[in-house]
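can u do me a favor
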């Protein structure tokens, strides 16, 4: 898949597609490549762009609120997720985090309890071109913990995250990380306590907040258009 981009317009397409826009119809060539320019039948140009992570965030089919790119960045930065890692993920949802990790070169097993959500996530992995790297499974991860082990990274966005964290020492290799997203501070506290009770090291919980800057002729200040808070991330490491 590619993106056709012009100013504030952006259309997802595949080679050979016929794309209808407000500026005319684009017959996308079969041999199209990133950096090419294609025109509508009215002569309006669009630039061809390859999809990157932020593009996937905007274009994957949604089944709920996906993890934000800034939160994914913290997960990758705090855990050092990289090529060759084995990742156990739970609470797939849209699959944004799983797709990002797959595109980093990690091998991901992700569990989603809702069968319809899981099917959408599988389609999203195809779009992200990581279907070979991301195994989307339908079910509750807590029902399969006895069969899972030797992961480098555990990522959770589920209500039963504390139950999984209690087993983190069995799930993770020595030095492996757990990263848990919690929408409410009470949930983050439960995860933090579960990590400490499980004997994990370097346990910390952070609030994820990001503010855009307003820059104009009067001066510069943080934007008041939103608080920028999304949730809490708890990190811990298997000794």
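np, heres the sequence
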């Amino acid at each position: 898949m590619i993106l056709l981009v012009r100013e504030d317009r952006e259309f997802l397409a595949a080679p050979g597609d016929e794309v209808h826009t407000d500026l005319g119809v684009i017959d996308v060539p079969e041999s199209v490549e990133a950096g090419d320019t294609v025109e509508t039948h009215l002569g309006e140009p669009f630039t061809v762009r390859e999809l990157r992570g932020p593009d996937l965030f905007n274009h994957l089919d949604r089944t709920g609120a996906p993890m934000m790119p800034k939160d994914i960045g913290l997960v990758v930065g705090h855990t050092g997720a990289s090529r060759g890692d084995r990742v156990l993920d739970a609470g797939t949802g849209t699959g944004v985090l799983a797709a990002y990790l797959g595109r980093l070169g990690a091998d991901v097993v992700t569990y989603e309890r809702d069968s319809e959500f899981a099917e959408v996530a599988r389609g999203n992995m195809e779009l992200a071109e990581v279907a070979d790297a991301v195994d989307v499974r339908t079910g509750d991860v807590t029902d399969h913990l006895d069969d899972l082990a030797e992961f480098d990274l555990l990522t959770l966005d589920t209500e039963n995250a504390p139950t999984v964290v209690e087993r983190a020492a069995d799930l993770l290799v020595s030095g492996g990380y757990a990263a848990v997203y919690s929408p409410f501070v009470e949930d983050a506290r439960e995860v933090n306590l579960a990590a400490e009770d499980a004997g994990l090291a370097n346990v910390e919980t952070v609030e994820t907040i990001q503010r855009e800057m307003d820059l104009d002729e009067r001066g510069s200040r943080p934007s008041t258009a939103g608080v920028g808070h999304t949730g809490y991330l708890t990190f811990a490491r298997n000794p």
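The mean pLDDT is 95. hope that helps!!
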